[in-house]
Write a structure and sequence with these properties.
about 190 residues; about 10% strand; UBQ-conjugating_enzyme/RWD; alpha+beta; RWD domain-containing protein 4 isoform X7; RWDD4; single chain; Ubiquitin Conjugating Enzyme
Length: about 190
């Protein structure tokens, strides 16, 4: 079997195995990415594997240069790459992309044990628009209740010249309730 036939068969196998797997990404027919760990996991990392023309007789190119891995120290990246290359040497001559991804998944905790977990994971990438960052947020205008002319007239009759209801306008209800309670407990 030629290298190209091996690659075609492995490509079909990878597509069927990882169909629907959100961690797997085919960048091209000879280049793949796999995210090891959940997307919110601070110890997750991304492996990229590319096949040279003579793959699988020669080793694939394994990279951890993706932006996703920027928070990982270079020493840990190199350690992961060294372990993955040991696995490549064992599997040289056979289709190994799936094997490498699974090996990385199985050994994630060991690979990342010395990686510090950053508690702050967000970066402030704001663009200045010429306004200060301390400007108060704009208030959303509240919609006023729509009143009919008759309702407005009744309200105007009850209010004083400032638009306020006179003191004690609702005392009648309190007195009515008070006398009701008195009668109830007699």
């Amino acid at each position: 079997m030629t290298a190209n036939e091996d690659q075609e068969m492995e490509l079909e196998a990878l597509r069927s195995i990882y169909e629907g797997d959100e961690c797997f990404r085919e960048l091209s027919p000879i280049s793949f990415q796999y995210r090891i760990g959940e997307s919110g996991d601070p110890k997750a990392f991304l492996i990229e594997i590319s096949w040279p023309e003579t793959y699988p007789q020669t080793a694939p190119v394994i990279s951890m240069d993706a932006f996703f891995n920027n928070a990982i120290s270079s020493a840990i990246k190199q350690g992961i790459l060294d372990k993955l290359m040991e696995e490549v040497e064992v599997n040289l001559g056979t289709s190994m992309t799936y094997t490498i991804f699974e090996y990385a998944k199985d050994n994630k905790e060991i690979f990342m044990e010395n990686q510090p977990v950053n508690t702050v994971t967000t970066l402030n990438n704001s663009i200045s628009t010429g306004h200060s960052d301390t400007a108060p947020p704009t208030k959303k205008k509240e919609k006023k209740e729509q009143l009919s002319k008759t309702q407005k007239r009744k309200l105007a009759d009850k209010t004083d010249h400032k638009g306020e209801l006179p003191r004690g306008w609702n005392w009648v209800d309190v007195i009515k309730k008070s006398s009701y309670l008195d009668n109830l407990f007699e």
